[in-house]
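Summary for the steering committee. One of the milestones for this cycle was to obtain a three-dimensional model of the protein with ribose-5-phosphate bound, which we needed before selecting residues for the alanine scan. The sequence and ligand used are listed below.
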Amino acid sequence: MSAKNGSIKLVAGNSNPVLAKEIANWLDLPLTKAIVRRFADMEIFVEIQENVRGSDVFVIQSTSFPANDHLMELLIITDALRRASARRITAVVPYFGYARQDRKAGPRTPISAKLVANLITHAGADRVMTLDLHAGQIQGFFDIPTDNLYASPVMVRDIREQFDLGNVMVVSPDVGGVVRARGLAKRINAPLAIIDKRRERAGESEVMNVIGDVAGYTCILVDDIVDSGGTLVNAADALLANGAKEVYAYITHGVLSGGAVTRVASSRLKELVITDSIQPTEAIAKAPNIRTLSIADLIAEAIGRTAAEESVSSLFD
Ligand code: R5P
């Protein structure tokens, strides 16, 4: 791997140390020694313990739960690196939290995704690398180069190993996710169905209309985020009610907050496959129908190509 912007340094925050270590292993590089800790009043303190002057630094930190602490760590690490004269700083944010607040959802509400993009830029990041942004347009919230990677090659590899593709149908759990689901369906040459969620009147429960004939198919739901699990569990029920043989889900970011793990475990979903963009909790690791795929090799490859000034987009051709 050639480094064109100074020697490569990898710095990890506390959000996902396992993924950071795996990325470092793939790149055959050590993680840069750094202290990221709390004062008694919970302020964050960072000390980079190696010389990074003139280096091409990649800070690996998802802004996952607790989102504000992990975001603040990312900002403070970036500030420390900038003041230590790193030549170039790339914020590697496998899960970009706040992404769902990407527009004014009502009067007098914020666009927090834009605010977070501003904070990362002003802290001193020169580039951003992220994965399956909730909406591709969020790249435009940054005025610095932003690479949005896709977990689909990792998912496609796994789907090919697990399923008889002749009987698989890819399903988008809502209209907003059709582009993402269609992309995956194309890669495995499978048909596509869409779930159209509608609440006819306020206070009434959502009606799930399945667009496409799913009867007899093994359905694979594809989405960017599973949070409460509600979207997924309801979608699985709707597909089974429409004659689907069985339902699986491949979702990039396993936010799985509140009682989501229990909800998924007691659902009719055969299996939920997530990536390690967010470090899986013990409950996730123990759940009988949740499995995690690693995106460490994908991110490591993208870091290597960025450092060598090679194409990153061609990873997804
Ligand atoms: C929505 O636009 C997203 O793509 C996900 O479908 C949503 O965030 C999932 O949330 P939950 O698991 O809480 O239903």
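Key point for the committee: Residues 173-174, 176-177, 223-232 surround ribose-5-phosphate (CB under 6 Å).
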